[in-house]
Structure formats: structure tokens, C-alpha cells
């Protein structure tokens, strides 16, 4: 049934991550993903402010293009940003999850760039209350500004079709 695709909500273009320091975050996300940013620019003015529900805005940003998703790294100059802090269990908290084929290699990469997971990775088992997806491995970590990030080596229903 095609009704689920009406309106065009069947693809995601990008996720935006607001950061304290664009240059520092470019270094982090390039090291994490092994991909160089494709564009660094800035945008602002009254039209951009209005579309975001702000009085004024100036944003320095970089675009990082991954195979299936772009990451916009955003540093707000105006208005002066405040720091949000979310735990994964808080309503409206979001996280970005990177799909990996080899969790051990991904964790070594994290450690190589100075990032420690928030806890030991777990492998989904029946005791976790799941009915399927056994063997999926997940780990959580944060970027330098505290953005919630996840690694997943998916199995069963967590694997996307065609993978």
C-alpha cells in the first residue's frame, strides 16, 4: 500500500546538530566518520530567523555527507545559544545512531579519537524483553557538546531492508 509514502515522508535528508564550536566539531565528526565536510558557510538574516521562529539569526555551519544521511553541524552566533542537556529517557530528547558492521572496530575508532562509551556495549538477548532482534549490539556515547549518539550493529528487524 503506497499511502504511507504520500507527502514525501519516506526519506530523511539530514539531521542538524547545534554545537558550541564549529571548528572543534568538524574535527570530531570528520574523525568519527572518516568523511570530510563538503561545505562550510554561514547563513542569517530576517528570512532565516522567521522560518525558525527567531527574531534574528546568524549560523555558521558545515555539511557532512554520509552514504545515507547528511549531518548539518550548526554553530549559532545569533541569537547567543544556551546549552541543552538531555538524557536518553527525557521526552523530546533525540539521538543519532550510526550503523556499523563491526562493533569492535567501531569502538576502537572511538577510543582512538578519545571517546569512551557511556557503558559497556550490550548484545540484545531474550532476557532484555525483546521478541526478536537477538544478536544486535548497541553502545552509546556523546559528542564534545553532549549530543547523544549511538552505535548499532543490527540484526533481525533492526536491519534495514536491502542490507
UniProtKB/TrEMBL annotation:
Pfam families: Glyoxalase. GO terms for molecular function: metal ion binding; methylmalonyl-CoA epimerase activity. Residues 11-154 form the VOC domain. Keywords: Metal-binding. GO terms for biological process: L-methylmalonyl-CoA metabolic process. This is VOC family protein. It comes from Flavobacterium cerinum. The lineage of its organism: Bacteria, Pseudomonadati, Bacteroidota, Flavobacteriia, Flavobacteriales.
Amino acid at each position: 500500500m503506497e499511502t504511507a509514502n504520500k507527502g514525501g515522508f519516506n526519506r530523511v535528508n539530514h539531521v542538524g546538530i547545534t554545537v558550541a564550536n564549529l571548528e572543534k566539531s568538524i574535527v570530531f565528526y570528520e574523525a568519527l566518520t572518516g568523511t570530510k565536510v563538503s561545505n562550510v558557510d554561514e547563513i542569517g538574516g530576517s528570512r532565516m530567523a522567521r522560518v525558525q521562529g527567531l527574531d534574528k539569526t546568524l549560523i555558521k555551519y558545515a555539511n557532512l555527507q554520509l552514504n545515507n544521511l547528511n549531518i548539518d553541524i550548526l554553530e549559532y552566533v545569533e541569537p547567543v545559544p544556551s546549552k541543552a542537556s538531555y538524557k536518553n529517557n527525557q521526552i523530546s530528547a533525540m539521538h543519532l545512531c550510526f550503523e556499523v558492521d563491526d562493533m569492535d572496530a567501531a569502538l576502537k575508532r572511538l577510543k582512538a579519537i578519545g571517546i569512551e562509551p557511556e557503558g559497556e556495549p550490550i548484545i540484545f538477548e531474550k532476557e532484555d524483553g525483546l521478541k526478536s532482534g537477538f544478536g544486535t549490539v548497541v553502545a552509546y556515547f556523546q559528542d564534545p557538546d553532549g549530543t547523544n549518539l549511538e552505535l548499532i550493529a543490527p540484526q533481525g528487524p533492526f536491519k534495514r531492508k536491502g542490507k
